[in-house]
Every structure is written in C-alpha cells, then in structure tokens.
C-alpha cells in the first residue's frame, strides 16, 4: 500500500513515482511520457485530469517535483537496505541455522521456528564468507595458472600448447627417446 508521500509524488496517469515530470498550464503534473501518450492522436492537448486545454505542445519540466521524487526514491532505497522482515517489519537480527535464512525476533518465537538453532546475522554472515572463501580458493588458483591443474589423486597435470604432460608420460618419453637413441647408435656402429 502506498504511503501519503508516495501518493503525492505519483503521476495520476500511470500511478508511479513521477519520471521526468512536466507541468501543464492548469497546474497538474504528469510524467512527460504519460502526457505525450495521452495527447497522441488527439486534436487538442488537454489535461488528462481536468480536461483543460493546454496551450503548450511541449510543457515545461517540473524541476522541483523531479528533485522531490529523486530524494524520495533515494530515501526509500536506503530504508529498503535495512533488511526488514516481510512479515513483521522488524529488523532481521538473527539467522535460522535450520532454514538457512535471516529472521526477526518475532519469527524466532513463532511456530515456524520452534526448536530451531539461531545465531546473530553478523556471525552467520562471517561463517558464510569464510565458507565461500574456502570454496573460491581453488577456483582463484586455477585462474592464476590456467595451465596447471591438481587432481584428487594428487597428480599434477600441465597443459602446454594443447598436449598433456604428466610426470609419468615425461618418464615414458625419456625412456622411449633413450631406446630410440640406443638403436640409432647401434645402427651407426654396424
């Protein structure tokens, strides 16, 4: 439900907070887009509320109303960032460990959360931050060196220009090279 201030700052055409408000000669204000839409296809530019004919095709911007609307929206956004319970309009000070969600003091005492474990929101947030850091660490390491991967079995595999080299394959290649080298020497000796 809209508050009194919000009703005072709402366009009578779209019922939203004014966006780029203009002032008609009859002193009614509208969003610029709303009045232009209302006037589209009409022979005369009349006020959508009182039907008074406006002598201006481009009504002046209502800067005072625009500033009030911007201040109201800014204040409303800041109030919204306080994290209030949608059921009780109380601050969310606790975190239900069983439901993994923030709750207010009234919710804690409700039937929904009977027998549940709680912690302060700040502590729960810190715990979640630490858990996220642990989860992100391997991903960040992978980003730092995208050519090296360590797998669960402890083997480290390195991708170089599309070929996979491990310690095992490196040893096999050296052994094969020595074998070929020995065969070449034997053939040269014969």
From TrEMBL:
<keyword id="KW-0479">Metal-binding</keyword>
<dbReference type="InterPro" id="IPR050143">
    <property type="entry name" value="TRIM/RBCC"/>
</dbReference>
<dbReference type="Pfam" id="PF00097">
    <property type="entry name" value="zf-C3HC4"/>
</dbReference>
<feature type="domain" description="B box-type">
    <location>
        <begin position="80"/>
        <end position="121"/>
    </location>
</feature>
<dbReference type="InterPro" id="IPR013083">
    <property type="entry name" value="Znf_RING/FYVE/PHD"/>
</dbReference>
<dbReference type="Pfam" id="PF00643">
    <property type="entry name" value="zf-B_box"/>
</dbReference>
<keyword id="KW-0863">Zinc-finger</keyword>
<dbReference type="InterPro" id="IPR017907">
    <property type="entry name" value="Znf_RING_CS"/>
</dbReference>
<dbReference type="InterPro" id="IPR000315">
    <property type="entry name" value="Znf_B-box"/>
</dbReference>
<dbReference type="InterPro" id="IPR001841">
    <property type="entry name" value="Znf_RING"/>
</dbReference>
<keyword id="KW-0862">Zinc</keyword>
<protein>
    <submittedName>
        <fullName>Uncharacterized protein</fullName>
    </submittedName>
</protein>
<comment type="similarity">
    <text>Belongs to the TRIM/RBCC family.</text>
</comment>
<dbReference type="GO" id="GO:0008270">
    <property type="term" value="F:zinc ion binding"/>
</dbReference>
<dbReference type="InterPro" id="IPR018957">
    <property type="entry name" value="Znf_C3HC4_RING-type"/>
</dbReference>
<feature type="domain" description="RING-type">
    <location>
        <begin position="11"/>
        <end position="51"/>
    </location>
</feature>
